[in-house]
Specification:
Blueprint lengths: L3 H12 L7 H8 L3 H15 L4 E6 L3 E6 L2 H16 L10 H15 L5 H8 L3 H15 L5 E5 L3 E5 L2 H25 L10 H14 L6 H19 L16 H17 L6 H11 L12 H19 L7 H20 L8 H7 L1 H11 L3 H4 L5 H19 L5 E6 L5 H13 L4 E7 L5 H5 L3 E4 L12 E3 L6 H16 L7 H5 L19 E4 L3 E2 H12 L7 H14 L8 E2 L12 E12 L7 E8 L9 H11 L2 H8 L4 H10 L1
Parallel strand pairs: 5-6, 5-7, 7-8, 9-12, 10-12, 11-13
Antiparallel strand pairs: 1-2, 3-4, 12-13
Helix pairs in contact: 1-3, 2-3, 5-7, 6-7, 8-9, 8-10, 8-18, 9-10, 9-11, 10-12, 10-14, 11-12, 13-16, 14-18, 16-18, 26-27
């Protein structure tokens, strides 16, 4: 079986199958050297060549995955994913992250508390190893105002309010699958976009946890979809037919289902009929995906569905065949659907006409490919039921084109107090529109956090710093203008079909400011052409020396601030472009200093061919429009042709001409 690094590389190569992936990029993602990446790829090649695929390499481009046998490869890939999913199986737990998952699952879902010695015994490790794992777990819990407490005889347990526990459960256990899946449901225009699927998921999780009913994430996914559709049916004027008494029996499942119905009715201010609890309980009875009661064993039906998915993958180019979430969702739905068909009952689908009108190709493909399943051949499947199956495929497609939910980092002066207040206001105002991944103080903002963030929301003006991601400056009280500003960025994040969030997207709805406005920050005496190879420190010294001719300021202090900024993360934003800038604004006026070194600058171990350096020195007084220069940097970072034209400039005037006209 592949190790975790090899699994990561294979997933990356599969995601970018149509292009090449460089060893440098993989090294950055894995935080290892290029040489180590090449070692992992060599090992990976040997393994996947036995399973219908190969890795091609091309000098100057990188690596590309080539699949010769889709069925053979995806069978191997699915087995790999199943292995990963068994992180709570002691037999396969080998690494610290797996142990953390096991411990957290125990504490949140299986028992209220646990003793360290018992955990060490269960996992066949030492007490000190568990203690180290708990230190890492505490860091995971901290942003959610949760902590690990220890009481005599009781052992360790998670302390904190229930709301925060639910937020952590949603993020840690269900972020990759459930949040992205429910986001897919909610993003259908005209289908389920008015239904808060994450709120429904939270209710289901909490009630099942309190009732000690253990569901797989696949079962939860299918149940959430069912409840969303029930709400849609109710609000569209449809009624559910009563289930016959032999379909369900009174028990703990019915009690949990009724609690879910009552809470959803209260949360959404609707009245779900009592019969809905019985439909939900059927999902509980069927939670192991056993479908033998309709005449087919699960394994046989699963292999038949995979063949249908293989055809869909070949027709559409979308990875249905590798989608375990889709497979289990379809399996579970078919078992319930065939139960209805055998009994002569059906559920009208309020989305049927919209699906046929807005998604006719996918609807037709669903019927064409799944109708060949032997289980359907002798049955008369209604259009309403086919539309329900189509929804599963639509949800899968949404996951493929919208692979993640928006991750936000909240930055305040200290990271406590006002930060927690802003965090609460953001959660109340925006609900499930994004995940607040980190709440940090100004000096705790790090490269690791930035890499794991899509938008920074800050109560501190960070316009003097340059980031690859949007930074929103807001008041801790979050007035109406700030709410609108954040909503604009949220809309832009999800506006592109492929979820590519670039400055170009933002410019389509924001007012364009003339680049000529930026000329006042440039000066021909702040422009350097450097011959021969040089180093970062030499270039920084030369650039700062130029600035001292305009302002009498300590060069040493400016350099210290520039170096401090780089402790937060690299300022080399492409292979050729670096944008150094001080942590704090020190100058009376704002300046842009430019250096071009066509033979390359050795910036650090990872970046040895930097050719363009644009140093940003903002005024300590602010309010001069200098933040627009930072925004211009983003457009350069995202436009390789412009970057190359700037590097080819032979003098200040050529550089400015390219800078202004593009």
């Amino acid at each position: 079986m592949l190790n975790k690094k090899e699994q990561f590389i294979l997933k990356k190569l599969l995601d970018m199958q149509e292009s090449y992936l460089s060893s440098t990029q993989l090294a950055e993602d894995l935080h290892v050297s290029d040489r180590t990446v090449r070692k992992y790829i060599s090992q990976l090649k040997t393994t996947i060549e036995k399973h219908g695929a190969s890795i091609n390499s091309k000098t100057g481009y990188g690596y590309q995955l080539e699949i010769q046998s889709s069925i053979q490869f995806y069978e191997f890939y699915n087995q790999m994913n199943k292995y990963i999913e068994r992180k709570d199986d002691i037999a396969v737990i080998q690494e610290s992250l797996d142990r953390q998952y096991y411990i957290l699952k125990k504490l949140f879902f299986e028992m209220e508390s646990a003793k360290v010695d018992d955990l060490a015994s269960d996992l066949f490790v030492s007490r000190s190893t568990i203690t180290n794992d708990l230190s890492s777990i505490k860091k995971l819990l901290s942003p959610y105002d949760l902590k690990i407490d220890n009481r005599t005889k009781k052992g360790i347990y998670v302390a904190g309010i229930e709301t925060n526990k639910r937020h952590f459960i949603m993020y840690y256990f269900f972020n990759d699958k459930m949040m992205n899946a429910t986001l897919g449901f909610s993003s259908y225009e005209g289908l389920l976009n008015e239904i808060d699927t994450l709120k429904i998921t939270s209710i289901v999780l909490e009630e099942c946890r309190q009732g000690e009913l253990h569901l797989s994430d696949y079962a939860i996914y299918n149940l959430v979809l069912h409840i969303c559709l029930a709400i849609k049916r109710l609000t569209s004027g449809y009624e559910l037919k009563q289930i016959t008494s032999e379909d369900v029996t009174e028990g703990e499942e019915i009690k949990i289902a009724k609690n879910i119905v009552n809470r959803i009715s209260a949360e959404f201010e609707i009245t779900l009929p009592e019969v809905e609890a019985y439909y939900i309980s059927l999902h509980f009875f069927n939670r192991n995906n056993r479908v033998s009661f309709i005449g087919y064993e699960k394994e046989i039906l699963e292999s038949q569905i995979k063949l249908a998915f293989q055809q869909l993958t070949e027709i559409t180019g979308m990875p249905f065949v590798a989608d375990e979430l889709l497979l289990h969702g379809i399996l579970s739905h078919i078992s319930l659907m065939m139960n209805r068909v055998k009994k002569g009952t059906s559920i009208e689908n309020p989305l049927l006409s919209e699906i046929k009108q807005n998604y006719p190709e996918i609807h037709q493909l669903t019927m064409q490919q799944l109708a060949t399943l032997p289980i359907f051949i002798t049955e008369d499947i209604s259009e309403d039921e086919w539309a329900y199956l189509t929804i599963h495929l639509l949800a899968a497609i949404e996951r493929y084109i919208k692979p993640k939910q928006l991750l936000v980092t909240v930055v305040c002066a200290t990271g406590v107090g006002s930060a927690q207040m802003l965090k609460s206001r953001l959660e109340n105002e925006f609900g499930s529109k994004f995940i607040i991944k980190y709440v940090v103080g100004y000096y705790d903002l790090s490269e690791e956090i930035i890499q794991d963030t899509d938008i920074i929301i800050s109560t501190i003006d960070l316009s003097n710093l340059v980031f690859k991601i949007p930074v929103l400056y807001v008041s801790v009280f979050l007035p109406k203008d700030d709410v609108e500003k954040i909503n604009t960025e949220i809309d832009l994040f999800y506006s592109n079909d492929t979820n590519i969030y670039t400055q170009k997207n933002r410019n389509t709805i924001k007012e364009n400011h003339s680049n000529k406005d930026l000329l006042r920050f440039f000066n021909k005496d702040l422009f350097l052409l450097i011959e021969g190879e040089t180093t970062r420190d030499e270039v920084i010294d030369q650039m700062i020396e130029l600035v001292t001719k305009f302002e009498n300021i300590s060069s040493k202090r400016v350099i210290e601030q520039i170096n401090q900024r780089e402790t937060f993360g690299s300022v080399v934003f492409t292979k050729q472009l670096a944008v150094p800038h001080p942590m704090e604004s020190l100058h009376e006026n704002s300046f842009v200093v430019v250096a071009i070194a066509k033979d390359g600058i050795v910036w650090d171990e990872q970046n040895q061919q930097v050719r363009l350096v644009i140093m940003l020195l903002s005024s300590k007084y602010g309010h001069d429009g200098f933040d627009k220069v930072g925004k211009k940097m983003v457009s350069i970072i995202e436009n390789k042709e412009l970057e190359n034209r700037l590097i080819k400039s032979n003098n200040y005037h050529e550089f400015i001409k390219q800078f202004i006209e593009n």
